[in-house]
Amino acid sequence: MWIIALVAFVVALSRVGRIGPFAWDPAWRTRRAALCAPASPSDQAERILARRLADGDLTVDDYYERLSLLQSR
Q1: pTM of the shown model
Q2: I want to staple 53 with a disulfide (CB 3.0 to 4.6 A). Which of 28, 45, 61, 63 is the partner?
Q3: Of the listed ranges 26-35, 40-49, 53-62, the one predicted with least confidence
Q4: Which of 3-7, 8-12, 24-28, 35-39 has the lowest mean pLDDT?
Q5: Residue 47 is part of which domain span?
Q6: Most distant CA atoms of the chain, gap in Å
Q7: How far apart are CA 34 and CA 66, in angstroms?
């Protein structure tokens, strides 16, 4: 009996992709859509800057200078 429950749990978890509200929750789709929404261009630019700093393409001073320019716009 517990094996059937475990299999059902694994199947449900694989369909949802995480532990949390399942499809019968009316607000589930809107919350998931909000989490998957594309980032704004400024967020993407900041991530690119952070990645370039991590890769060593930018110095710390260059990073903060460019970040302040992005945030001032």
Answers
A1: 0.47
A2: 63
A3: 26-35
A4: 24-28
A5: 41-72
A6: 62
A7: 28
Three-state SS sequence of 22-70: CCCCCCHHHHHHHHCCCCCHHHHHHHHHHHHHHHCCCCHHHHHHHHHHH
Classify residue 34: in a domain, yes or no. Answer: no
What whole-number distance in Å separates Cα of residue 46 and Cα of residue 50? 6
CA separation for the pair 67, 59 (Å, rounded): 12
CA distance 71 to 46: 9
pLDDT of residue 61: 94
Which class for 52: exposed (0-12), middle (13-18), buried (19 or more C-beta within 10 A)? middle
Q: Rounded to the nearest 5 degrees, what angle is found at the Cα of 35, between the Cα atoms of 32 and 40?
A: 145
Domain assignment present for residue 1? The answer is no
